[in-house]
Design brief:
161 residues
Length: 161
């Protein structure tokens, strides 16, 4: 017997079986003239940066990343295509916790975006740096400068005494 789950409703909780993806209406990629923009050749860094720049200005960036993560869960790197949520296929593969790629060298989990370590990884790999990583990097630099100022003042006070 075939049961149609999409027609099922729940009286105890909101119906989530027939979710619409209204967030796609607000996506910046809907206004792109050329759909090929989202599928640059892996070696074409300029085209990749152009697509990612459009993504980073998108008001639904995080929802797009979440949808890509859900759809690509467990897939290999070669099964992922195009720029989605401001990330390349390799970046999405590395962020997928169900793959070994989510663990760095030595099996360590890669630092998530929004941390100074993720900022360093973006720079090291020649990837565009997202705003959360940039903010974390700036906060770390401000903290290092403040600690250096504090050490200089305490050293000056001790030598004056």
């Amino acid at each position: 017997m075939l049961i149609h789950h999409y027609a099922t409703t729940s009286h105890a909780a909101p119906d989530t079986l027939d979710r619409t993806e209204n967030w796609k209406i607000a996506a910046a990629c809907r206004d792109a003239i050329d759909d090929e923009l989202w599928f640059p050749e892996p070696s074409d860094r300029a085209a990749t940066r152009e697509a990612i720049t459009v993504c980073l200005s998108c008001p639904v960036l995080l929802l797009c990343r979440e949808a890509a993560a859900d759809e690509e869960w467990g897939l290999g790197k070669v099964s992922r295509w195009g720029i989605r949520g401001g990330l390349t296929p390799a970046q999405r593969h590395a962020a997928d916790t169900s793959t070994r790629a989510s663990h760095g060298k030595g099996g360590r989990q890669l630092a998530p975006c929004g941390t100074p370590a993720a900022y360093d990884r973006h720079v090291r790999n020649g990837e565009p740096v997202d705003d959360p990583c940039r903010l974390a990097h700036n906060a770390r630099n401000a903290q290092v400068r403040a600690e250096a100022r504090h050490r200089r003042t305490t050293t000056t006070e001790r030598s004056a005494a």
